[in-house]
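User: structure tokens for this one?
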Amino acid sequence: MSDLGELRQRIDALDTELLRLLNERATLAKEIGVIKNRASLPIYSPDREMKLLRSLIDRSNGPLRPESIRAIYREIMSASLALENDIVIACLGPSGSSTHQTAISKFGSSVRYTPTNSIAEVIEQIRANKADCGVVPLEDPIHGFINSTLDELTTTDLSICAEILPEADTQSQATGMRHIILGRQINAPTGHDQTLIMLRIEDKPGALVSALEPFRQMQVNLAHFASRPSQSDKAETFFFVQTDGHVRDLETNGLLDALIQSCRSVKILGSYPKPQP
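Assistant:
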């Protein structure tokens, strides 16, 4: 059996090699950042992140657990993002809040964070190009969907590009709070997506049943559901439904056309990868 000193020497040698490889990876990340900036491509790519993490976990023979691999690579990817560009993430503050901690659990400690006083301010930071993405709460298990978030989603031109489930190392874990990441990009399909849709319908008996009938007919699963009164027309109601699949899938199977026929208007709030538990 190797003694403690020998084992530590072997670890030191491995750490030296890991550092060399991490710096080599960082150099490539900087080159990718140049290409992204030149082509005006979004810096944050949730589909790339999901595929990378799944691939790493599938290729791992242990003893590292999947959650450990995700935590390690969260910081590696955070450092890479910071090298690609001066990334700024707006989030509902104050600093140290549940949303701020959730943002760190997603983007790591190498990017910059801007806490804000309201969800509307998060959106404004992105629209004014003062932030690359924004993190806001979407739902908690006690009170349901966050009304202020839904109200902002009815009017914003931003898109939901990812969802964050609570992790054991965030304050959201205790409450089960779900968060979303808002940005300007539209995600490509990954094969493991979900879509949040807003339906604007007439506020009268039977209108909701009629609006949701296409989901039943086409056997499209509804995972979440919420409603908000219209701020501009008391005769209208906004319904928010989360479905399985990417918006391209919903266009292909004819669901969106059917919804347009049964609702006053339909707005796709975002298609994004299903979060990994």
